[in-house]
Amino acid sequence: MTEVLKALQELNVCWKKIGHYNMKCRWVAGTAGHHEGMINNSVHSNHYFGNDSCIIENEAVSKSNVVKFEVQLYKTREEKYLLDLQRVQGPQFLFLDL
């Protein structure tokens, strides 16, 4: 899971830990930096994005370029891992681009 979180961090994805292997995530397309309220300390900490009602306060960011998704990591019998990504909200093509 640490490697998954490192990859999400490189893509400027914010996440909120739901379980040991399950994260709620939010990605804003086209932004290079981080928004206020996000924590960027280490991979082991949440990139917490707070309540859904106050996710983005910046007027420059429209909802049309925000993708919310969930990540679930599974371990198979063959000692391999399966990463499941499920789009919750946002444009489908931006989700696929991510």
TrEMBL record:
Residues 60-98 form the KA1 domain. The lineage of its organism: Eukaryota, Viridiplantae, Streptophyta, Embryophyta, Tracheophyta. Its EC number is 2.7.11.1. It is an enzyme of class 2 (transferase). Transmembrane segments: none annotated. Keywords: ATP-binding, Kinase, Nucleotide-binding, Serine/threonine-protein kinase, Transferase. Gene3D superfamilies: Kinase associated domain 1, KA1 (3.30.310.80). This is non-specific serine/threonine protein kinase. It holds the Pfam family KA1. The keyword Zinc-finger does not apply. It catalyses: L-threonyl-[protein] + ATP = O-phospho-L-threonyl-[protein] + ADP + H(+); L-seryl-[protein] + ATP = O-phospho-L-seryl-[protein] + ADP + H(+). It comes from Glycine soja (Wild soybean). GO terms for molecular function: ATP binding; protein serine kinase activity; protein serine/threonine kinase activity.
